[in-house]
Design goal:
alpha+beta; Jelly Rolls; Phage tail protein beta-alpha-beta fold; 8-stranded antiparallel β-sheet; 7-stranded mixed β-sheet; 32% helix; globular
């Protein structure tokens, strides 16, 4: 049986991360390591926030204390600061997180999928080529989705609704799980737990309630359509969270477009008729060539790779 990490161990690790960050910018590898550590346990985000708040307090105290110590005492002072930081972390559990942790911008590159713990205890899974702005306010938790797709596991807080904004589209929840994907002219919303309300500010109609196992498209200009029950389709549509694409009768052209979201090397289908072929299968998002060859072989096509193009043509 694996022992759960103790609260004291989490606080100590958070302190070490804050000190490392203060000594200079984290490298890409260190940042990835920190993100993975934060995502591994919901308690860690709070510990990290408290450590940063305590470090700010110590920085202020150090600035007010007078001249810098002599080099001979540097090691002793550093140990004293670390000890003080540990004590301050324990003492500031009720302190509001410093502002830069309450507002954050997250972006993913093409092919990148991130899991990000938010400061309110919620979790965001961010899909490829996505940009999110998160602002935690006293009475509102606000997320702006500029482009792309994200799934949210929302911590319950009836006093602070969780609202995702994308263009004029709004999706509101208190404690639930749902995804929002920005598409041309609106957003697709999939609900995996609880209930959300969806609407467009361009339309005067009342918000539409969407329940677990339902999906809905919210048009920027027309507003929400009627929710459709599709629990199996929702599960397949959210397989990207595990780095997967699951096909069950999708057209080859539509499937290729989905793979192209995740990869710099793009699938190009030479024959329009070929793009209408239906496919079934399970694939990794980062293996477009394997997918193209499997698809082509199922209907007698051939594949050639030319630079950043995976060309699929009819067979001889």
């Amino acid at each position: 049986m694996i022992e759960r990490e103790s609260a004291a161990d989490i606080e100590a690790r958070a302190v070490r991360w804050v000190v490392r960050a203060d000594q200079g910018l984290l490298t890409a590898a260190e940042r990835a390591e920190l993100d993975a550590w934060l995502a591994g346990d919901p308690r860690r985000a709070g510990a990290h926030a408290r450590a940063e708040a305590a470090w700010v307090m110590l920085d202020r105290a150090k600035a007010l204390s007078g001249p810098s110590p002599s080099p001979a005492r540097g090691g002793m002072v550093r140990r004293g600061l670390l000890a003080g930081l540990g004590a301050a972390v324990a003492a500031c559990a009720a302190i509001v997180v410093v502002p830069r942790l309450l507002s954050a911008r997250y972006g993913t590159a093409v092919g990148e999928i991130r899991r990000v713990p938010l400061s309110d205890g919620s979790l965001a899974a961010i899909n490829t080529d996505t940009v999110l702005d998160v602002a935690m306010r006293p009475r509102l938790r606000q997320v702006k989705l500029d482009k792309g797709e994200a799934w949210f596991q929302v911590a319950k807080d009836p006093q602070r609704p969780f609202v995702v904004e994308s263009g004029p589209v709004r999706v509101r929840a208190v404690g639930t799980a749902f995804s929002v994907r920005r598409r041309d002219g609106g957003c697709e919303v999939l609900v995996t737990e609880g209930v959300v309300e969806a609407w467009s500010q361009e339309v005067g109609a009342a918000p539409r309630r969407v329940r677990a196992g339902e999906r809905i498209f919210v048009s920027d200009e027309v507003g929400p359509a009627s929710p459709a029950a599709a629990p199996i389709d929702i599960t397949r549509s959210l397989a990207w969270r595990e780095g997967q694409i699951v096909l069950d009768g999708e057209a080859f052209a539509a499937a290729a477009a989905e793979f192209n979201r995740y990869n710099a090397r793009k699938i190009v289908i030479a024959d329009e008729t070929m793009g209408e072929e239906k496919l079934v299968g399970w694939f990794r998002t980062n293996e477009p060539e394997s997918f193209a060859r499997a698809a082509a072989s199922s209907f007698g096509g051939k594949v050639s790779v030319r630079g950043d193009v995976i060309l699929v043509e009819a067979g001889e």
